[in-house]
Amino acid sequence: MRFDQLHALYHQPLFDLISQGREIHLEHWRGEEVQRCSLLSIKTGGCSEDCAYCAQSSHYSTGVEREELLSIQKIVGVAERARAQGATRFCMGAAWRGIRDGTEKFERVLEIVREVSRLGMEVCVTLGEIGPAEAHKLKAAGVTAYNHNIDTSPEFYSEIVSTHTFQDRLNTIAAVQKSGMSVCCGGIIGMGESVDDRLRMIEILSEFDPPPQSVPINCLMGMSGTPLADQPPVDIFELVKLIAVARIALPKARVRLAAGRTRISREGQALCFFAGANSIFFGDKLLTAKNPAVDVDLALLRELGLHIEPVEAAALPAAKERVEAAVSAADASDTPAAAARREARNGHK
Ligand code: SAM
Ligand code: SF4
């Protein structure tokens, strides 16, 4: 979608925009379904890159302890627990610039992927820069999706990272697309970028061929010791508007409400789901940042009437039928409110 179209969408009154987002959402997705993904840091800290938001960069003193690649047993244990808690996608992240075929490290990662993929969840990895050979082998080992975020607009990118370029990110994404793995690619808001930078990011994502199947929208978690530690939190309505625009520009993508949910109220998250978000990261920790507790998330989803069990698409009536069924059941009841509704409708016919 072109920048001017995204700009026009974004600058509408909020309710108009989120209604359009909802309409598109219901054309492509079941409105009550929110995918729960679990994310584990399989190699933490000590990264050579200088991404200004990241607590795992070795360029900053953030207090994050460097840890080597976790053992297969440990990772499989965490993945089994996540599945038992209802996760249908298991994501593994590694803090390094990238990984190369032919190294012992890469062989270990392939082994981890083979083991985790046996558990029957979608498997997603985020391992930094890769090329066609690595992408091909990861796909063969059982990776469903590769996450590699563009993070912001190309114009703003050099303000937050100097050790690699926006084009490097695009090259990895091209290799992933060619391998047949699905692409998970989104960004972060709240780093000091403008609204136009955010819309440019959506423009670029929507022009991928094919478009990304999954789009995480992170709100910056200001990590102590990083250059962006003191950025003010993102305004909730700016987040909701960006989610609605992402939903409209990328109708078939899962839009993931990713980092920063600890700072968003229940009402704010509800608005994000209404505007088009249909996935969350689930689990008390998001790599090195905090995430809402599992029981708090379950309670919220339940209260909003969003499904907390994975459901077969065919097992539930479509949202529209459910609305009609709920209305006629309410009208058939004998309460004064139902009688008043019947009367009002008859009067308006
Ligand atoms: N090293 C790999 C890479 O850069 O692609 C994978 C790990 S990296 C930590 C995964 C993503 O998490 C980043 O691309 C960024 O979008 C997000 N992220 C990292 N730190 C964040 C923070 N403090 N606030 C919000 N999002 C963050
Ligand atoms: Fe390293 Fe990834 Fe963090 Fe950048 S975002 S510093 S590449 S772990």
Give a nutshell description of this structure.
This protein is an alpha/beta fold and 349 residues long.
Largest sheet: 9 strands, parallel
Total strand segments: 11
Named at the architecture level, the CATH assignment is Alpha-Beta Barrel
Order of helices and strands: HHEHEHEHEHHEEHEHEHEEEHHH
Description:
The chain contains 13 helices and eleven strands. It is of the alpha/beta class and 349 residues long. It has a single domain (3-331), classed as Aldolase class I (TIM Barrel, Alpha-Beta Barrel), CATH 3.20.20. Residues 311-320 and 344-349 have low confidence and may be disordered. The structure holds S-adenosylmethionine and iron/sulfur cluster (SF4). Iron/sulfur cluster (SF4) is lined by residues 47, 49, 51, 54, 56-57, 95, 97, 128.
